[in-house]
User: What shape does this take?
Amino acid sequence: MQSKIENIKNKIKDFKAESIKDIEDLRILLLGKKGEITRLFSEFRDVPNDQKKELGQHINNLKNAALERIQQLKDSLEGSKIEKSDIDVTLPPFPLNFGSRHPISLVLEELYNIFGSLGFKIVEGPEIEDDWHVFSSLNFPKDHPARDMQDTFFIESNPDIVLRTHTSSVQVRTMEQQKPPIRVICPGRVFRNEAISARAHCIFHQIEGLYIDKNVSFADLKQTLLYFARELFGSDVKIRLRPSFFPFTEPSAEMDISCNLCGGKGCGVCKHTGWLEILGCGMVDPNVLDFNNIDSKIYTGFAFGMGIERIAMLKYQVKDLRLYFENDTRFLNQFKSVL
Ligand code: PHE
Assistant: This one.
């Protein structure tokens, strides 16, 4: 019996397999119903008792060696198959799942290009700000409602430290650091203490523009905004400016564009007016220039600011503002084709 065991051991060691079938044949030859190892187990019954312990161990070891070898042969066969067909198992599977860019990023990028072509540089600033940069230097009176708890998030109840409610604060920081001519756009997140709904959110994105130089006029502002609207919404778009009020601009205006859905005829989106409000703007108040050590007798400037979500809503006809923040891939996937 010992020699049979040795024989089988050698057979296992030397066996070569070209295919899964060869391996299966080996398994049947050794461990099938009438296999050589199976037969050893039945012969084992007749072994004298005093040899049983040792031989039993040998036969068990042999069986384990056979099973191990079979597995080894299978593994190496599969490994070589992959090598032969040059498959890179680390590559992502088909269909390749490309991501899409967020609509807010898409709109921002478009705005960078439009204003960039007019010479505006991008500047960014902190989201946590002090009262001076968000309100005081922008000519907000001490009791202005925008400073109220209902609109502004304060940091740890410190009335001096706030989450910026607009990126005009970045315009102030630019005026502190640069001398005119200044031509910047300030994109970024802003925060207002509003209840979240389809039309309002406590976080949104803005882009604000500032141009200061000698002889900057309201006509320059109007022409810049007309150029922007035509680039973004198409050459047919019309604009109109309505008088408005902001503490930091004088005169101030709000700009509407002709409704891009109904072409100005009137529909649900423009509430049957034919117009959609998209931004605030005006000539920089001389007080703001003087607060920032820019001589208002020499320089004038214009500023404008808009919400990116609002622009994206109009451009992509999104009805609910919350979609921009929920990261639902069913929404985001719809922007795959937009470059
Ligand atoms: N800062 C204003 C806002 O957040 C927008 C604005 C910017 C208006 C510049 C006029 C000039 O609503």
Q: What stands out?
A: DSSP finds twelve helices and ten strands in the chain.
